[in-house]
């Protein structure tokens, strides 16, 4: 039952639902919490004004989410009413469950009614804290949403089953044990909170305070309210609208918007949906059973991997001990490889165990919640949530069927040390009359550089009679340092990528055969490009990214942020590139910056520790790295805006520009390593990349002064 507790808690206050209402998106919220997150909208967007102008088509109008952004995962603690320039920004808060919510648009008026019954401000808007869909309330306000009686019943049974002491509902941090309950306020208090919030004077002096246990019993024994129609509050639900998938009363059928819809008997649809939910739970139960068996299998794999590792290490040590002392260093290297493989297998299996355990707990919680819902005898209340539960059960079952119950790692070690050929070769070692190959000749006409890549070509001398089995190409570090091998093989042409821009490299080649190696060729000096010319890389981009204009222009097919990298990486020098905004609809917040090659591609740039970015909307920008937002700066982008990115490895800084003006301070310092240009965007944005640009003059002059 404890695994079901997450299903019973409000995403805003983090406590068990109190008087939950059902939003049109099928999510639930406390009625009091719903009042707290209301936002007042301009008069022109109200349902009354839309109906007056002839544009309204329903009692509730969903806001255009592309024009109004009340919640942004990439925002840095602030929400704005993006559809109207006159609307002020409003700081957002976080609920105990980590969901961002907005405070009331205005202080609630003084009233003697309870907060849940007090009238809401005109032209109010509410945003679901879970799916973030927004809608404008009509004249009925929150009374227009149906109450979730089934959820209330499940919570009552769940709380009755828990033997834990009742906690105070007003303690801000660690709730203390409740000492009394007010029957009129329906709130549990500890002694300090009772003295502070419920003094025995004025109107509160007439309230009846009872012990917490008695209060729980009185809650449980209070008669369950009959579910009534939201459009006709005096009428009970009697039929079920098949088209709208909701219970309705007889007045809805005679004069309301359901008059022309197909309807069926409430009891028959109640039994049908209960049957469908039960059938869906049967499939999910089978998946949960398979998951439990799969967890046992994974735990057994851990033991098998450990046993196989010990056996393999013993065999490897025995084989290595048979070799001569010259192989001891190699033996240590082989052991390191085995240990690495061992740890890798264990990590993969343990990670899969952890992932499967979490998924199983969530599945079990959903199953228990659904079973409790099935026990409900309120047809209309059940039908209000049954469709959403059935979809969730099917979705959870589908998630178990996508290879989740297949081990990602085998228990066997795909390594085998066969020392007999080596021992035989040692016994057969003998002198051979053979010469080393001649020194290769670099073919200068075929050697070239492009961006930060170098292509070299060579051949054997024309009169050479000693064959070469292969060649070794060496380059220095671009600073006159030691040479290092960059290619070993039989080919006579090689392209080396990933060099530093604006650097001078020395290259040389030598040949080898069984007898030995030749002399080095003459050293070739290579100069890489001063500036970088590159495009976006389709190979490493998210599948939702759409490329055009020879991979210089990108957009996205998804409403979610997706990441695309440039083809060229930088690790040295000063580099500057620009991106122009070709299309900018509905005020999204694209991000621009640099990233590692293994950055996450399905979230906004800067959400993980592999990217350093600036994300910007039409009003302001932030810098973000590892999901940390800093340096909010006024000034945003529109269609036609130009974003400049300056990566300076000499000063180890990353700086951003908008329309040739620096945006905020230096964004990031101590920037070291290999970075790729990166952008994240959704379908509302299209940008074009411009490369091969010199560093701006004002930055060069500033750097020289510094």
UniProtKB/TrEMBL annotation:
<dbReference type="InterPro" id="IPR003961">
    <property type="entry name" value="FN3_dom"/>
</dbReference>
<keyword id="KW-0677">Repeat</keyword>
<dbReference type="Pfam" id="PF00622">
    <property type="entry name" value="SPRY"/>
</dbReference>
<feature type="domain" description="B box-type">
    <location>
        <begin position="163"/>
        <end position="212"/>
    </location>
</feature>
<dbReference type="Pfam" id="PF00041">
    <property type="entry name" value="fn3"/>
</dbReference>
<keyword id="KW-0863">Zinc-finger</keyword>
<keyword id="KW-0479">Metal-binding</keyword>
<dbReference type="InterPro" id="IPR000315">
    <property type="entry name" value="Znf_B-box"/>
</dbReference>
<dbReference type="InterPro" id="IPR050617">
    <property type="entry name" value="E3_ligase_FN3/SPRY"/>
</dbReference>
<protein>
    <submittedName>
        <fullName>E3 ubiquitin-protein ligase TRIM9 isoform X10</fullName>
    </submittedName>
</protein>
<keyword id="KW-0206">Cytoskeleton</keyword>
<dbReference type="InterPro" id="IPR017903">
    <property type="entry name" value="COS_domain"/>
</dbReference>
<dbReference type="InterPro" id="IPR003649">
    <property type="entry name" value="Bbox_C"/>
</dbReference>
<dbReference type="Pfam" id="PF22586">
    <property type="entry name" value="ANCHR-like_BBOX"/>
</dbReference>
<feature type="coiled-coil region">
    <location>
        <begin position="288"/>
        <end position="344"/>
    </location>
</feature>
<keyword id="KW-0963">Cytoplasm</keyword>
<dbReference type="InterPro" id="IPR013320">
    <property type="entry name" value="ConA-like_dom_sf"/>
</dbReference>
<feature type="domain" description="B30.2/SPRY">
    <location>
        <begin position="513"/>
        <end position="698"/>
    </location>
</feature>
<dbReference type="InterPro" id="IPR001870">
    <property type="entry name" value="B30.2/SPRY"/>
</dbReference>
<dbReference type="InterPro" id="IPR013083">
    <property type="entry name" value="Znf_RING/FYVE/PHD"/>
</dbReference>
<dbReference type="InterPro" id="IPR001841">
    <property type="entry name" value="Znf_RING"/>
</dbReference>
<keyword id="KW-0175">Coiled coil</keyword>
<feature type="domain" description="Fibronectin type-III">
    <location>
        <begin position="436"/>
        <end position="531"/>
    </location>
</feature>
<feature type="domain" description="COS">
    <location>
        <begin position="374"/>
        <end position="432"/>
    </location>
</feature>
<dbReference type="Pfam" id="PF13445">
    <property type="entry name" value="zf-RING_UBOX"/>
</dbReference>
<dbReference type="InterPro" id="IPR043136">
    <property type="entry name" value="B30.2/SPRY_sf"/>
</dbReference>
<keyword id="KW-0833">Ubl conjugation pathway</keyword>
<feature type="domain" description="RING-type">
    <location>
        <begin position="10"/>
        <end position="50"/>
    </location>
</feature>
<dbReference type="InterPro" id="IPR013783">
    <property type="entry name" value="Ig-like_fold"/>
</dbReference>
<dbReference type="InterPro" id="IPR003877">
    <property type="entry name" value="SPRY_dom"/>
</dbReference>
<dbReference type="Pfam" id="PF00643">
    <property type="entry name" value="zf-B_box"/>
</dbReference>
<dbReference type="InterPro" id="IPR017907">
    <property type="entry name" value="Znf_RING_CS"/>
</dbReference>
<feature type="domain" description="B box-type">
    <location>
        <begin position="224"/>
        <end position="266"/>
    </location>
</feature>
<dbReference type="InterPro" id="IPR049582">
    <property type="entry name" value="TRIM9_Bbox1"/>
</dbReference>
<dbReference type="InterPro" id="IPR027370">
    <property type="entry name" value="Znf-RING_euk"/>
</dbReference>
<dbReference type="InterPro" id="IPR036116">
    <property type="entry name" value="FN3_sf"/>
</dbReference>
<keyword id="KW-0862">Zinc</keyword>
């Amino acid at each position: 039952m404890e695994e079901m507790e997450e299903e019973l808690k409000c995403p805003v206050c983090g406590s068990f639902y109190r008087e939950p209402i059902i939003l049109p998106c099928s999510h639930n919220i406390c009625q009091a919490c719903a009042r707290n997150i209301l936002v007042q909208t301009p008069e022109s967007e109200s349902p009354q004004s839309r109906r007056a102008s002839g544009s309204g088509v329903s009692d509730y109008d969903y806001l255009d989410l592309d024009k109004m952004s009340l919640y942004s995962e990439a925002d840095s603690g602030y929400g704005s009413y993006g559809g109207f320039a006159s609307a002020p920004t409003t700081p957002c808060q976080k609920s105990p469950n980590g969901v961002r919510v907005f405070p009331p648009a205005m202080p609630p008026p003084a009233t003697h009614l309870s907060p849940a019954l007090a009238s809401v401000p005109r032209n109010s808007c509410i945003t679901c804290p879970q799916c973030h869909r927004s809608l404008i309330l009509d004249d009925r306000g929150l009374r227009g949403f149906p109450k979730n009686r089934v959820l209330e019943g499940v919570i009552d049974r769940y709380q009755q089953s828990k033997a834990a002491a009742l906690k105070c509902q007003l303690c801000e941090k660690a709730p203390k044990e409740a000492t009394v309950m007010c029957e009129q306020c329906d709130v549990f208090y500890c002694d300090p909170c009772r003295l502070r919030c419920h003094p025995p004077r004025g109107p509160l002096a007439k309230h009846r305070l009872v012990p917490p246990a008695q209060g729980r019993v009185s809650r449980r024994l209070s008669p369950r309210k009959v579910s009534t129609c939201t459009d006709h509050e005096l009428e009970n639900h009697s039929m079920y609208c098949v088209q709208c998938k909701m219970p309705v009363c007889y007045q809805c059928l005679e004069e309301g918007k359901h008059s022309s819809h197909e309807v069926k008997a409430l009891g028959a649809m109640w039994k049908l949906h209960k049957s469908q939910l039960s059938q869906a739970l049967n499939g999910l139960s089978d998946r949960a059973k398979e998951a439990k068996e799969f967890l046992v299998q994974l735990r057994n794999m851990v033991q098998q991997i450990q046993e196989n590792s010990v056996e393999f290490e013993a065999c490897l040590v025995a084989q290595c001990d048979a070799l001569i002392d010259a192989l001891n260093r190699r033996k240590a290297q082989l052991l390191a490889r085995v240990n690495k493989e061992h740890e890798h297998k264990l990590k993969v299996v343990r990670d899969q165990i952890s992932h499967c355990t979490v998924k199983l707990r969530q599945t079990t919680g959903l199953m228990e919640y659904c079973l409790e819902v099935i026990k409900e005898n309120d047809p209309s209340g059940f039908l209000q949530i049954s469709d959403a539960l059935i979809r969730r059960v099917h979705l959870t079952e589908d998630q178990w069927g996508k290879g989740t119950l297949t081990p990602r790692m085998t228990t066997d070690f795909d390594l085998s040390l066969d020392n007999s050929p080596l021992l035989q070769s040692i016994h057969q070692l003998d002198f051979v009359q053979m010469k080393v190959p001649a020194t290769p000749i670099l073919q200068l006409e075929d050697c070239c550089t492009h961006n930060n890549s170098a292509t070299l070509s060579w051949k054997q001398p024309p009169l050479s009679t000693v064959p070469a089995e292969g060649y070794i190409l060496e380059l220095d570090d671009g600073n006159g340092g030691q040479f290092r091998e960059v290619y070993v093989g039989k080919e006579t042409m090689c392209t080396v990528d990933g060099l530093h821009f604006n650097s001078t490299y020395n290259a040389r080649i030598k040949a080898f055969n069984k007898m030995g190696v030749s002399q080095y060729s003459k050293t070739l000096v290579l100069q890489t490009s001063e500036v970088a010319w590159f495009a976006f890389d389709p190979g490493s981009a998210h599948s939702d990214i759409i490329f055009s204009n020879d991979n210089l222009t990108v957009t996205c097919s998804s409403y979610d942020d997706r990441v695309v990298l440039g083809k060229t990486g930088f690790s040295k020098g000063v580099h500057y590139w620009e991106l122009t905004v070709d299309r900018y609809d509905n005020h999204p917040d694209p991000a621009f910056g640099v990233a590692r090659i293994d950055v996450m591609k399905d979230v906004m740039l800067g959400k993980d520790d592999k990217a350093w970015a600036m994300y910007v909307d039409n009003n302001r920008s932030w810098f973000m790295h590892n999901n940390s937002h800093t340096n909010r700066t006024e000034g945003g982008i529109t269609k036609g805006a130009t974003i400049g990115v300056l990566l300076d490895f000499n000063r180890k800084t990353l700086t951003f520009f908008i329309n040739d003006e620096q945006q905020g301070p230096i964004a990031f310092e101590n920037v070291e390593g290999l970075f790729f240009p990166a952008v994240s965007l959704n379908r509302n944005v299209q940008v074009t990349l411009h490369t091969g640009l010199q560093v701006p003059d004002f930055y060069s002059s500033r750097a020289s002064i510094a």
